[in-house]
Amino acid sequence: MARFLGIAAALVATGAYAITPEQLLSAPRRSTATPNPSGDIALFSVTEYSFENQTRAAAWQLLDLKTGAITDSGLSASEVDEVVWLPGTDTGILYINGTNEDVPGGVTLWIGDIKKPSESKLVASLDAPFTGLRVANTSSGNIHFLVNALAYENGTAYNAELAPKPRHSGRLYENIYTRHWDTWLTKQRYAVFGGSLLANASYGLAGTGLRNLLQGIEYNVTKPESPVQPFGGSTDYDISPDGSTVAFLSKATHLNKAEFTASYIYVGPFDGSKVPVAFNGPESEASAGGHKGASGNPKFSPDGSKLSYFQLDGDYYESDRAKLYVVDISTGVGGVSVSNWKPLAPNFDRSVSGINWAPDSKSLFVTAEDYAIVRAFNIPVASEASFVPERLTNVTSVTDIGVLPDSSLLVSATSIWTSRDFYVLKADGTQNALFSATGVDAQLAGLGSHTYEEFFYTGSLGIELNALIIKPSNFVENKTYPLAYIIHGGPQGSNANAWSTRWNPQLWADQGYVVVEPNPSGSTGFGQNLTDSIQANWGSYPYEDIVLGWEYIKENLSFVDTDNGILAGASYGGYMTNWIQGHALGREFKAIVTHDGVFNTEAIYGTEELWFVNHDFNGTIYEEGSTYKKWNPFNHIANFSTPQFVVHNTLDYRLPESDGLALFNVLQSKGIPSRFLNFPDENHQVFGVENALFWNTEIFNWINHYSGVGGALDDEAIGV
Ligand SMILES: *[C@@H]1O[C@H](CO)[C@@H](O)[C@H](O)[C@H]1NC(C)=O
Ligand SMILES: *[C@@H]1O[C@H](CO)[C@@H](O)[C@H](O)[C@H]1NC(C)=O
Ligand SMILES: *[C@@H]1O[C@H](CO)[C@@H](O)[C@H](O)[C@H]1NC(C)=O
Ligand SMILES: *[C@@H]1O[C@H](CO)[C@@H](O)[C@H](O)[C@H]1NC(C)=O
Ligand SMILES: *[C@@H]1O[C@H](CO)[C@@H](O)[C@H](O)[C@H]1NC(C)=O
Ligand SMILES: *[C@@H]1O[C@H](CO)[C@@H](O)[C@H](O)[C@H]1NC(C)=O
Ligand SMILES: *[C@@H]1O[C@H](CO)[C@@H](O)[C@H](O)[C@H]1NC(C)=O
Ligand SMILES: *[C@@H]1O[C@H](CO)[C@@H](O)[C@H](O)[C@H]1NC(C)=O
Ligand SMILES: *[C@@H]1O[C@H](CO)[C@@H](O)[C@H](O)[C@H]1NC(C)=O
Ligand SMILES: *[C@@H]1O[C@H](CO)[C@@H](O)[C@H](O)[C@H]1NC(C)=O
Ligand SMILES: *[C@@H]1O[C@H](CO)[C@@H](O)[C@H](O)[C@H]1NC(C)=O
Ligand SMILES: *[C@@H]1O[C@H](CO)[C@@H](O)[C@H](O)[C@H]1NC(C)=O
User: Fold this and answer.
1) Which of 359, 287, 275, 369 is nearest to 325 (CA)?
2) Can 113 be counted among the known catalytic residues?
3) How many other β-carbons are positioned within 10 Å of the β-carbon of residue 311?
4) How confident is the model over 241-290, as pLDDT tens digits?
5) Is 98 helix (H, G, I), strand (E, B) or coil?
6) Residue 283's Cα: distance from chain center in Å?
7) Candidates 521, 615, 618: which one to mutate for ligand 11, based on the most atoms within 8 Å of Cβ?
8) First CA to last CA distance, the chain
9) Is 669 a catalytic residue?
10) C-alpha distances in angstroms, 717 versus 212, 710, 713, 720?
11) Which CATH superfamily is domain 457-707 in?
12) Which residue's alpha carbon is nearest to atom 1 within ligand 10?
């Protein structure tokens, strides 16, 4: 196998690929861009992996928001993980340096100017691996900042390098939350810490050091924790612009963590003089109104008078509609008071994710998934309940927006044909394109929107369903290409017009397929009814929708060869491949790829997030009427006969690897051609770049062999 094909070589040698696995994985990866307070430049990071040298390079770069010119900031990205702008300045920065010469395992805080990064000054030595910097510049001139870290039960930040080595490796539990995602729970929990840098002391850390802002919160079932693991970060908390008030998220302390999703927003004074209190928890107006689920993204308005956030309704459903709310905040001698709780655009049938205030504090720019792309919307605080926001963006998916002083938006976006676009969207709707990775990155040369289409068809519930089509880059009219039918996970998720370094549909198409990605029942972004319809119906509506989609392709897409097609999916998508393997549609594919998918739903209580299965199968596993037995692919193994490639990783605690092993053992003992791929160091997803190259290479080797696009199977597998 030619593992290290150069970029030019791959294009010239085959004339076929716009993109190969090596190119996808070695292309620069850029973060979203954060504009400075005056809105003339923005900062982003870029990392790049070299297969040739097995090294990674990283840099902090500056984007000129007028010209789109990109320059290197000179700040070392290998030493600096996080940078924030200092409010009240044009180019002042505060950053976390990942090393600390005095405290092993600690980090340091530095103050500087992005124009002169070499003159930065160390202002604080932090004795644990703090991350998630947020900052306020106060009227006294002192800087107030928030960071987070794991903390001991007594509140002190936890530093693994300084912690005493335990004498045994036993883990003893007395409640149902033993591990989550890829991590076993310990006695330490994450907490938000506040610190002050004193202007009169060259921004040295105030003698009070860092305060754990979660200390003193009462609980009877679950300890408070912020950020909420495993994906929470600095968007789980905020500091008011005047530095006086903090807001953070914690899961409900009176419910257990495995069976409930509920989380609340706590507010309190930055100085720690009062214990923070949740304002949307039990007995609140929000709760009385039926809004009892997970909260997120608390954001103070620029004038400090309001706080906005989202919350879901159901306390054990993670894919309810995330609705936008705003409350008034005032800080006085009695502490922080919260009033005038108000839902914004409550009838908007989309889930809000990103939340950004307009500079005048009168409206919010939010992002929400809508018809297979993430778009930006504007919602005025004074809007009526019936208000339906207009789409501000189109075509590509918005990953983040930065609001500029004149209310223009700096949009960071992606799509199937670009790993990163930056553009400015002005208030009048005009766009100023600043940067597109495709056209700059040699690895992405040849990608474009010409390979991308969508179609709509009527699903099993009579609802119009969306599906994406991605053609090979060298698509030739009147030729046919085998179908690669890819089912998304979730199941409350979507196939969207967005970039991915894990499942990149253009990469699959460029092997010589037409990729079709359906968005069946359960999908998000098409209204809550479609999302909710999958409850208690894992194997019915979605399967029927996928069959109808396949029939549409067979009848209507003349350039697709459905006789030599392949089927693939991860997680719930992997469940669906296993369900299809046991049903009639399974006979229509030459090969199947299942990545960390559910095989035996009656063994699914080996997972950690029990709320998810309790919701989706409509009850606990021991309740009459729940549907674990009904929708079990295991019931249909008598029909399994299509060659199947099974991936299952060891650190997948969401769905333990025993499920993938059981599937492989069934396939092997039935004599069905099959391979099993395991990564001992990966979780539900594959992130290591060398691992991802092997993943793509071996999956393509498998599907290409069975679809007829490629030759013989390679000899990489471990045999007898
Ligand atoms: C790999 O290292 C060699 C020697 O230092 C250098 O010339 C080459 O540019 C590097 N390649 C990449 C892709 O970084
Ligand atoms: C804080 O903001 C003021 C203006 O409001 C500015 O003069 C000052 O330099 C800022 N502080 C820092 C440390 O950047
Ligand atoms: C980061 O800290 C180290 C010392 O721990 C220092 O040598 C290095 O210059 C610092 N880098 C930056 C960019 O602050
Ligand atoms: C908290 O507990 C840790 C671990 O036992 C200990 O190292 C630390 O000194 C304690 N902190 C306080 C303030 O007691
Ligand atoms: C700086 O001001 C603080 C009060 O904000 C005071 O406690 C401290 O002593 C002052 N430090 C210096 C070096 O003046
Ligand atoms: C915990 O406290 C809540 C009230 O906040 C109460 O409803 C619940 O029954 C308590 N749970 C336990 C296990 O004590
Ligand atoms: C989005 O773009 C498509 C295709 O370019 C166009 O047909 C459609 O009208 C646009 N929609 C909006 C809201 O701009
Ligand atoms: C494709 O087929 C159609 C109908 O047979 C024909 O009219 C057209 O010229 C063909 N296109 C190409 C590029 O061969
Ligand atoms: C969702 O379903 C409910 C109940 O069937 C129906 O009343 C409502 O109109 C539907 N909503 C939309 C947006 O289709
Ligand atoms: C093919 O497309 C037509 C027109 O959109 C549609 O009416 C028909 O139902 C499609 N065929 C299938 C099998 O879905
Ligand atoms: C879930 O179960 C309840 C009874 O426990 C039943 O009333 C309800 O219809 C079920 N939901 C679905 C979607 O089947
Ligand atoms: C096997 O598939 C056939 C139809 O394709 C179906 O009638 C039969 O019930 C299936 N058997 C099992 C065990 O699922």
Assistant:
1) 287
2) no
3) 26
4) 999 999 999 999 999 999 999 999 999 999 999 999 999 999 999 999 99
5) coil
6) 31
7) 618
8) 22
9) no
10) 51, 17, 9, 10
11) Alpha/Beta hydrolase fold, catalytic domain (3.40.50.1820)
12) 556
